[in-house]
Amino acid sequence: MNFDEIIALDKADPLAQKRLEFDLPVNTIYLDGNSLGALPKSVKSKVAEVVSQQWGNDLIKSWNSHNWIDLPIRVGEKIAPIIGAAKGQVICCDSISVNLFKLLCSALTLNSERTVVLSTKDNFPTDLYMVQGLSDLLGPDLCQLQMVEEQDIEQSLNESVAVLLLTQVNFRTGNLLDMAKLTKLAHEKGILVIWDLAHSAGALSVELDKCEADFAVGCGYKYLNGGPGSPAFVYVAKRHQYAIKQPLSGWMGHSKPFAFNPEYQAASNINQFQCGTPSVISMSVLDAALDVWQDVDMLQIRTKSVELAEVFLQLIQGNECLHDLLLCSPKLAEQRGSQLAFSHHDAFAICQALIEKGVVADFRAPNIIRFGFTPLYTSFEDVWRAVTTLTNIVESGFYKEQRFNITLKVT
Amino acid sequence: MNFDEIIALDKADPLAQKRLEFDLPVNTIYLDGNSLGALPKSVKSKVAEVVSQQWGNDLIKSWNSHNWIDLPIRVGEKIAPIIGAAKGQVICCDSISVNLFKLLCSALTLNSERTVVLSTKDNFPTDLYMVQGLSDLLGPDLCQLQMVEEQDIEQSLNESVAVLLLTQVNFRTGNLLDMAKLTKLAHEKGILVIWDLAHSAGALSVELDKCEADFAVGCGYKYLNGGPGSPAFVYVAKRHQYAIKQPLSGWMGHSKPFAFNPEYQAASNINQFQCGTPSVISMSVLDAALDVWQDVDMLQIRTKSVELAEVFLQLIQGNECLHDLLLCSPKLAEQRGSQLAFSHHDAFAICQALIEKGVVADFRAPNIIRFGFTPLYTSFEDVWRAVTTLTNIVESGFYKEQRFNITLKVT
């Protein structure tokens, strides 16, 4: 594959114009949108307006006049089509971790005859930690975490399992779990499923409703480009909303928050999953960032994501000097999310050298480099230039010279 | 009291210059900083820098280069002197509601022989709701809420009470509880105390350490001027930090979050009270807003707060036509926070009419108007003009004409 073919791919890309809606840093190839999404241009004026006009000038009146009070629902409804959810099932609030706690309690209550929360050993740690925290609180008679390898999920589904907690796309390897199949198998055993969409919302075509998913969480700061620490979201299938009660029963989840009644009465819809006062500034940023998605077809996102990764892989594998980079992601594109992970004994040094040369990838302990592909703003030319830079770094041994200067401070 | 005397008070006010650090709306007298604080001028450039430079340009590298990772601690340490806390005890994270859940669980675990959480009937509802949610989750054998009137707190302290949950300043009446006395009385009965500082942090001289407080929460968006839905904070006395474990055990509370270990190991310090990824944009706004406090003496804040309220009260009470406004706040200044509440059978209409005439106060169901005094930016002239406007509205009956046009949508 040569540079002309790469340019032809960019020319044929139906999403190519989307890149213009982002403020990308100069002289940088950003392949880390799976950790923190890039800045949509519309955000800058929006945040200035929210701060100066809505907060500074209109002050408390903005709860009504700028409808701050409905922000969590409004933002949730913008996320819904991106994850295949019909209306009334998604709300924006808190963090993934806090939202997982709400859903774990809800699901365990629905399945109160059972105690096991089944998850995978290499799930993103916070998912496992939240189960451990709940298990310590309730005791093992009510909640216990069982961790298995990803390939052992299916055979571990049995009638002792109350909740299956899975991240659709593995944060290290990018391995993509089959949501439709696993949800169906779990339901056959009476198991409720919580899907963590951190690495899939905005990265591929998620179909929560079609898969008859029960619950999901996801974050705003990766592929949804909502900014660092952007609020997260919760999905609760309509059929479960009347039956459950989540324990983080803050005033915003009350059926009538402004009645200031001392008795909690949960809202009977998705509003119940709110807890405290919404984070208006951060949520408004996400709100603006989500406008980029209005005319986007998620199948186009997936198609381009696969192409970007396939081209990257082809360029890497066609280059002898990069053979020490061992693919940790699945070989088949349909089994991957929107990233490629490689192990290398000098992964950390290579990653730092790449960043120094303007190619931003990221490192995950102990020895993995991740390259994320964000179809909205990653071009095929980016992929070409990233591999060229990587080749230069490895061929020249530049990364070895650098390694002694590096402070190990990784996020 | 005449207008010249009012102007003299402003001239003698050592905090008068602080008002210049805020962007206050024109033609508005803002007496609702107890609900949403005004915009500090420094915030506008800060948020633009965080969005454009830190996020937009530096992207993922900012976790290190702009030290996002330490924001919760950095902001916590800026709040600490405002609430009388020595270092290492305050962290910024989540909302008051979520933080109350962490503290309630922590306190109940420390006092595991007991089950009662004692609070007041007219505590801010979310505080009560969070106890109710926890009680539903754990069952009444482990947690039960007992609500009493404020005046009955002392006589309700007994050996069955595990946790005393109090808001220092009542959100409706502004009644100020005696933190030193109540904490001491509670400790004598083996009760742990959680103080909600929503209406006191930044409004008066809070002395958590001196009172030997156990735990506290507070919000960033009232007197701390951190913007709508600004993140909250948690205080945990040093002596309790080693003994407790809070159940919302997200990855940011782990002793080594970036080791990505599947087993949760709580940080042994205040960091444990973090849960998910911090809300960088909102927290940076609060960070900038807190710089206003650097050279502020909290005793000066309290002195001015009392004076503002006393002048307001004197002007109201000296005006015959305002005699239908009945003071719901304590008569004695030392028993009040930084607000005055009045009941009136037409409270809602009067409040709306005031807002229409540029005086922003707020309404609390069923019949209360609250006027908040924020010593950093409320002037004595504001107080004078507010009472003049109120007098005109009541004398003219203007508020009665308005009442039929008002949509009941209050926050």
UniProtKB/TrEMBL annotation, chains A, B:
Keywords: Hydrolase, Pyridine nucleotide biosynthesis, Pyridoxal phosphate. The modification N6-(pyridoxal phosphate)lysine is found at K222. GO terms for biological process: anthranilate metabolic process; L-kynurenine catabolic process; L-tryptophan catabolic process to kynurenine; NAD+ biosynthetic process; quinolinate biosynthetic process. Gene3D superfamilies: Aspartate Aminotransferase, domain 1, Type I PLP-dependent aspartate aminotransferase-like (Major domain). Its cofactor is pyridoxal 5'-phosphate. Pyridoxal 5'-phosphate binds at I96, S97, F124, P125, T126, D127, T167, D196, H199, Y221, W251, T277. Belongs to the kynureninase family. Catalyzes the cleavage of L-kynurenine (L-Kyn) and L-3-hydroxykynurenine (L-3OHKyn) into anthranilic acid (AA) and 3-hydroxyanthranilic acid (3-OHAA), respectively. Homodimer. This is Kynureninase. The gene is kynU.
